[in-house]
């Protein structure tokens, strides 16, 4: 099933009809401009804006250098490679996008519990593939540390208020701060910056 991507403007630089067809299949609602190469694009449409640029490598590898002056790489996805690499990359993009368009993701329903279930599932699966053991204390520590840090930032380092927010005894909170190596000075600095 094709991905809905109506917010994207894509510039495709390739002569390969298979890559052209695959881009049109993956990005059905996108605005796609197709040019045989970068030179033709720069002559015909030098100021066209795009969020995604896909370029088939011809004989030269200096193409990225040529784009550097014209693109904001922080806001543009630039994919460059041989025809085979582009087809493989597009297949991976399609595999990534397609499941989300087939059924609503648990991470998209706004529920913290469902979001954590998905993320924890991914983590546990990855750890199991790596033959990990003792996941419970690892996960509890991984969740507890940022939770306490966030509470301290929210209360600007006030441990009494943070303990109340978390539903913990102040002494328990202090013990967890020490055991989890949470730097109080940095927490206060971050809280002051975000205020």
Describe the structure in your own words:
This protein is of the alpha/beta class. It folds into two domains: 9-103, 3-Layer(aba) Sandwich (Rossmann fold); 135-194, Arc Repressor Mutant, subunit A (Orthogonal Bundle), CATH 1.10.10. It is built from nine helices and four strands. The chain has helices at 17-26, 38-44, 63-68, 83-102, 112-129, 135-154, 159-166, 170-179, 184-194, and strands spanning 9-13, 31-35, 52-56, 77-81. The chain has a four-stranded parallel β-sheet. Helix 6 (135-154) crosses helix 7, helix 6 (135-154) packs across helix 9 (184-194) and helix 7 packs across helix 8. The radius of gyration is 24 Å and the shape is elongated. The two termini are 45 Å apart. Mean pLDDT is 75; it is low at 1-6 and 99-104.
Please trace the helix and strand order, writing H or E for each element: EHEHEHEHHHHHH
**General shape:** elongated
**Helix segment count?**
9
Radius of gyration: 24 Å
């Amino acid at each position: 099933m094709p991905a809905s991507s109506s917010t994207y403007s894509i510039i495709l630089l390739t002569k390969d009809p298979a890559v052209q067809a695959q881009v049109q299949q993956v990005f059905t609602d996108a605005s796609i401009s197709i040019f045989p190469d970068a030179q033709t694009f720069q002559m015909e449409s030098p100021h066209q804006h795009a969020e995604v640029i896909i370029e088939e490598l011809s004989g030269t590898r200096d193409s990225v250098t040529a784009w550097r002056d014209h693109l904001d790489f922080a806001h543009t996805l630039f994919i460059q490679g041989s025809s085979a690499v582009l087809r493989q990359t597009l297949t991976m993009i399609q595999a990534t996008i397609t499941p989300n368009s087939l059924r609503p993701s648990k991470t998209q329903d706004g529920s913290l519990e469902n979001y954590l279930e998905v993320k924890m599932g991914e983590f546990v699966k990855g750890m199991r593939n790596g033959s990990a053991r003792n996941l419970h204390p690892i996960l509890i520590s991984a969740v507890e540390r940022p939770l306490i840090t966030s509470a301290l930032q929210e209360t600007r380092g006030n441990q009494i208020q943070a303990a109340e927010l978390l539903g913990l005894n102040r002494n328990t909170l202090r013990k967890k701060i020490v055991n989890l190596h949470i730097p109080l000075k940095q927490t206060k600095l971050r809280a002051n910056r975000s205020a």
